[in-house]
Amino acid sequence: MARWEPGAAERLQQAALELFATRGFEQTTATEIARSVGLTERTFFRHFSDKREVLFHGQQVFARAFLDGVTGAPPDASPMEVVASGLRSASSFFPDERRASSRLRQSVIDQNPALRERERHKLASVAKDVAAALRERGVDQTAATLAAESGATVFGIAFTQWIREDEQRSLADIAAEVLGELLALARQSAGAEKGASRSCSRTGAG
Amino acid sequence: MARWEPGAAERLQQAALELFATRGFEQTTATEIARSVGLTERTFFRHFSDKREVLFHGQQVFARAFLDGVTGAPPDASPMEVVASGLRSASSFFPDERRASSRLRQSVIDQNPALRERERHKLASVAKDVAAALRERGVDQTAATLAAESGATVFGIAFTQWIREDEQRSLADIAAEVLGELLALARQSAGAEKGASRSCSRTGAG
């Protein structure tokens, strides 16, 4: 059996991000990544199935964090409150120490259509899982899909903001703010549609 | 110059959909599509750059319809009202006569990851254009992105419902209802958050 390399996965990830960002994703091989931190190709493939996996390694953990927040919400929480709980939990997966490497990772992904696609697909599949979890809580299908997709939208916008160069707030704070802005937009529209006096009587589609 | 074939594009589209649905997208060639309606490969390529284009031919028109609704909304409309106007306009691109072929088209797309991806990408790029149009109306970037992405989400859910076998309502009606449900979900959450008169605000899906 190959010997254990302490922190090998983390070292490989950091090296990969830097090489991808400077040389380009396509132009960097797994062997080069391994060699740049004094490890072998074999060690690389003990941790990652290919160089793409280095970028999407945390994906499962992120999806689970989002879902844990959803399933952990109080039983009487409204669908949007459940999603808010999912967002808080998912945000805890991105503490401020990760901001720099998340930024670097995003710059690599933004430059490569196939990686962008995989990233989009990831968020879409988290939304699907969240919708399923909401249905299990008794939410009807349309409401579950709407709430879950809104959660994915809010996460995407908040994440983009979080990795901006001048941003200092935590991802959880930004996500809460963006979700609040979505709710405000909806209220604003409802108010304009109906007029204040009818705000209690009509709640369906316009 | 090749002679003009009346209705050739429409005949090719219908034939392509049927061949894709019965034989599979990958297994069908442009030549076979053309021959099945007594046309030549050359005629096919006068109308479409490849067999994928047969499926995505209306894409530009759909995107323009959505944007026309956005730019045509009254100047004082709230972002969500602007999106509602875009949804109404986009829905007019799918009259009930198109339901059967839209259903067939979707069954082809659902079976092919690359086509699904192109479809997702299409909706994402419409959302991007709508967000840009909202910013031009003076809406700030986060609100514009949220409203536009919500519009894309609502359209996707409404369209999926519209092509169900047992569905009779128009796409415009379904889209208005789904948007209304999103607004109700947001109000419900806002009410619970603020503790303001839950009996008024909790009326959405449960």
TrEMBL record, chains A, B:
Keyword Nuclease: no
GO MF entries: DNA-binding transcription factor activity; transcription cis-regulatory region binding
DNA-binding span(s): 29-48
Record has Transcription regulation as a keyword: yes
Domain of life: Bacteria
InterPro entries: DNA-bd_HTH_TetR-type_CS, Homeodomain-like_sf, HTH-type_TetR-like_transc_reg, HTH_TetR
One of the Pfam families matching this protein, by short name: TetR_N
Record domain HTH tetR-type: where: 6-66
Keywords (A to Z) from UniProt: DNA-binding, Transcription, Transcription regulation
PANTHER family: HTH-TYPE TRANSCRIPTIONAL REGULATOR RUTR, MYCOFACTOCIN BIOSYNTHESIS TRANSCRIPTIONAL REGULATOR MFTR-RELATED
Protein name: DNA-binding transcriptional regulator, AcrR family
Organism: Amycolatopsis sacchari
Lineage: Bacteria, Bacillati, Actinomycetota, Actinomycetes, Pseudonocardiales
